[in-house]
Design goal:
This protein has 11 helices and 2 strands; from the N terminus they run H-H-H-H-H-H-H-H-E-E-H-H-H. The protein is mainly α.
Length: 272
């Protein structure tokens, strides 16, 4: 289906005068314009098939992490313990980390990465990073930092998106977490009160370490991405402020030097 057919234009012009073919000059000028869309975009627009272009590359693994961590809420209510104080401390720490992941960190991570992946619209949230605004800011920042610091890479753009680029790390952590969780579950005796576990010291420490790493990763990366985005916006805002007084003309310079410019501004304008 063509894009024009989607309009369902049905007007019947009895005088045959309203619809006019463009003159050759207009047609030639329009043909010289760069194309607005590629062929595949024209086809998708014609069939109104303009969705499902984006995906969250870490959504599945984070959901698996949440599923596993959520099982620890039961262990927390059972107050699972071990007679060895060191093992017991490791168990308690692993449970606490897992509960934090299940109740807060994993959900926030999916929310942020859905926005970074352009899976969900920006909406009214202007604080948390989103694909459209981060890409726009990143393009401006890339140009600025090339001039100010000689940066010649895409870090000014990708700094907004680190949470969606660590899939391998998350998969590795989840694999270890899932295996140790299965080991832990098989050591729990629920007939005692409180429930007890005879998990080994090595496995208890490993479980504590992996849950700590997961909690840190799921909490830190979105925070860092949001901070990078906020810093990008602050730098761009400063640039926009400076752009107003960049390369002033003779009259502007006269006004600033003699009337409205502060000593700070005038000292800078008069630098060679």
């Amino acid at each position: 289906m063509s894009v024009f057919n989607r309009l369902n234009y049905t007007f019947n012009d009895p005088a045959n005068s309203a619809i006019q073919t463009f003159s050759s000059n207009v047609s030639n000028r329009m043909s010289m314009m760069p194309p607005l869309l590629k062929n595949w975009q024209i086809q998708d627009m014609g069939s109104s098939n303009v969705n499902n272009y984006f995906q969250n590359p870490v959504a599945n693994v984070v959901q698996l992490i949440w599923n596993t961590a959520n099982s620890y809420i039961t262990y927390n209510s059972q107050n699972v313990q071990n007679t060895n104080p060191t093992i017991n401390a490791a168990i308690s720490s692993a449970i606490a980390n897992s509960v934090l992941i299940a109740t807060t960190y994993a959900n926030t991570y999916i929310y942020i990465t859905n926005r970074q992946s352009n899976v969900t619209p920006q909406g009214n949230d202007t604080i948390n990073v989103h694909y459209t605004t981060a890409i726009s800011a990143g393009k401006v920042l890339t140009y600025l930092l090339n001039q100010t610091d000689g940066i010649q890479n895409n870090a000014p753009m990708l700094g907004n998106f680190t949470s969606i680029m660590i899939g391998n790390t998350l998969n590795s952590l989840y694999s270890t977490f899932a295996n140790l969780t299965s080991t832990f579950a098989n050591t729990i005796n629920t007939s005692s009160n409180p429930a007890s576990s005879n998990i080994s010291l090595d496995n208890a420490k490993a479980l504590q370490n992996v849950t700590s790493s997961l909690a840190y990763t799921l909490h830190t990366f979105p925070n860092n991405d949001n901070a990078f985005f906020a810093n990008s916006q602050a730098i761009i805002a400063d640039y926009n402020s400076l752009k107003q007084i960049s390369n002033p003309g003779q009259t502007e310079t006269y006004l600033m030097n003699n009337f409205i410019g502060t000593p700070k501004l005038n000292s800078r304008l008069n630098q060679p």
